Amino acid sequence: MIGIVMAGGKGSRMSLTGEKLLLKYKKPVILHVLDALRDSNCFSKILAITSSNSPQTKKFLEENSIELFNTPGDGYVNDLNLVLKSLNDFVLIASADLPFLDGDIIKKIITQCNLENVWTTIIITKKFLDSLHLSSDYWFEFENQQCCYSGISLVNAEKILTMENISEKFIIIDDKRIAFNLNTKQDYDLLGTA
């Protein structure tokens, strides 16, 4: 199994100068996420996905001897498609801005996913996010509840030819370790109180 961390975004929703992935919370969040994947002991390889949109992040990861996969920076879906087409294994995809992610929740996610599914996405309920005073820009209904994406998916890359017509399965895991996603300055400010 391969773990990948998506770290090629511009960080534009953060409305700060510099890249949000370099924000520090004990240590840079990107390193925290990579360490969580390592600590899970679930992966034969761990890659950070970078692009020209995040030159500081790329340089920082190179300086920390992290294996990189560089993409053109044509958007999340296009970049992820490029990565998945080059891999031939199960892949756990994680956002680079999950400051509470740890090895235990990664193991829990992997054990809860049916490896027969091509694509399993971990989602969080609005009720749980509200309890943490967090919000999302995108909600959808699943099992009669408002939900949002956690930034974590488990994919059988061997069965992915294109990103179109993929049957996506959802699993709700209401857990602070995956719910807290640093997308905005408000999220970062809340991090200090969490």
Word description of this protein:
39% of the residues are buried. This protein has helices at 29-40, 55-63, 76-86, 103-112, 126-131, 176-179, 185-191; strands at residues 2-6, 24-25, 27-28, 45-51, 68-71, 90-95, 119-125, 140-142, 145-156, 168-172. The chain is α/β, with parallel strands linked by helices. Strands 1, 4, 5, 6, 7, 8, 9 and 10 form an 8-stranded mixed sheet that branches. The chain has a two-stranded antiparallel sheet with strand order 2-3. A hairpin with a 2-residue loop joins strand 8 (140-142) and strand 9 (145-156). Helix 1 (29-40) packs across helix 4. The termini are far apart.
Low-confidence stretches: 12-18
**How large, in whole angstroms, is the Cα Rg?**
16 Å
Helix/strand structural class: alpha/beta
| Biggest sheet features | 8 strands, mixed
SS element count, helices: 7
Give the overall pLDDT as a whole number. 84
Q: Distance N terminus to C terminus?
A: 32 Å
**Helicity, as a percent range:** 25-40%
Spell the H/E element sequence. EEEHEHEHEHEHEEEHH
* Count of individual beta strands: 10
Specify the overall morphology: globular
Measured by DSSP, the beta-strand proportion falls in: 25-35%
Short description:
30% of the residues lie in helices and 27% in strands. With 194 residues, the chain is of the alpha/beta class. Mean pLDDT is 84; it is low at 12-18.
